[in-house]
Amino acid sequence: SAVISQKPSRDICQRGTSLTIQCQVDSQVTMMFWYRQQPGQSLTLIATANQGSEATYESGFVIDKFPISRPNLTFSTLTVSNMSPEDSSIYLCSVIVYTEAFFGQGTRLTVV
Amino acid sequence: SQQGEEDPQALSIQEGENATMNCSYKTSINNLQWYRQNSGRGLVHLILIRSNEREKHSGRLRVTLDTSKKSSSLLITASRAADTASYFCSFQGAQKLVFGQGTRLTINP
Questions:
Q1: Which pLDDT does position B3 carry in this prediction?
Q2: What pLDDT, on a 0 to 100 scale, did the predictor assign at position A27?
Q3: pLDDT digits (tens), chain B, 109 positions
Q4: What local confidence, expressed as pLDDT, does residue B1 receive?
Q5: Bridge partners, residue B74, by sequence
Q6: How far apart are CA B18 and CA A97, in angstroms?
Q7: Domain coverage including residue A102
Q8: Residue A98's domain is classified under what CATH number?
Q9: CB A41 within 8 A of CB A33
Q10: Does B75 touch chain A (CB under 8 A)?
Q11: Interface residue B10 vs chain A (CB under 8 A)
Q12: How far B43 CA sits from the closest chain A CA (Å)?
């Protein structure tokens, strides 16, 4: 199994600013995943973060808007840049261990 | 779209009744998993079924998988008020997990 500590748990931010979300895993994992869950919607994969290389972004998501760092095998950050109200969502990080996915508790972001 | 399809989108039943949710996907998968999400909370893993399995049970949960139809179903028997939540299927292929659109289940006392 894996335990993921994600922070902040929630934040209210002004439009035009940036927020960095952190995820710490209690074991070493090759890949970490970042998801967005808009209000009342399912989870959409933003990008896959690999240690030692650039993140792989899904269609509709770009590095300039969602820069990701992966400095080691237990930690990753996602930054939501130049925020607008449309970025108000829950953001979750995830890892897969022996085919089972584990999630952080999520960051509830509100942009005003 | 990276997401799978789930139906129904919303389901409301009486406590004690059974609830069935369906999920369809388009790609080849290694396994399919079901998760529960209570309002505003994180995801809880319910059950995993591998691509070479057809049916799996866990307590009051029964999951089926039909790879020829690229579909799965989740049955919750003898529902309880605490089962009220959103349920998501997710499928893993090419080392990433993709989620269905979810079913919002409401159990009425």
A1: 63
A2: 93
A3: 456 788 899 999 999 999 999 999 988 888 899 999 987 677 888 999 999 999 999 999 999 999 999 999 999 999 999 999 999 999 876 667 888 889 999 999 9
A4: 46
A5: B21, B63
A6: 31
A7: 4-111
A8: 2.60.40.10
A9: no
A10: no
A11: no
A12: 7
Per-residue pLDDT of chain A (112 residues; tens, 9 = 90+): 889 999 999 999 999 999 999 999 999 998 999 999 998 889 999 999 988 888 999 999 999 999 999 999 999 999 999 999 999 999 999 998 887 788 999 999 999 9
| Binding-site residues on chain A for chain B (CB distance < 8 A) | 31, 33, 35, 41-45, 48, 58-59, 90, 92, 94, 96, 99-106, 108
Cis peptide before B8 (omega within 30 of 0): yes
- The half-sphere exposure of A73 on its side-chain side, counting CA atoms within 13 A, is 6
Q: Compute the nearest-CA separation of B30 from chain A (Å).
A: 9
Beta bridge partner(s), residue B47: B34
**Domains along the sequence of chain B with CATH:** 5-103 (2.60.40.10)
CA–CA gap between residue B50 and residue A24 (Å, rounded): 28
Sign of CA dihedral A100, A104, A106, A107: negative
Tokens 């790609």 belong to B27
- Give the contacts of B78 (CB within 8 A, at least 6 positions apart): B16, B18, B60
**Which among A108, A75, A81, A74 has a CA at the least distance from the CA of A92?**
A108
Identity of the residue numbered B42: G
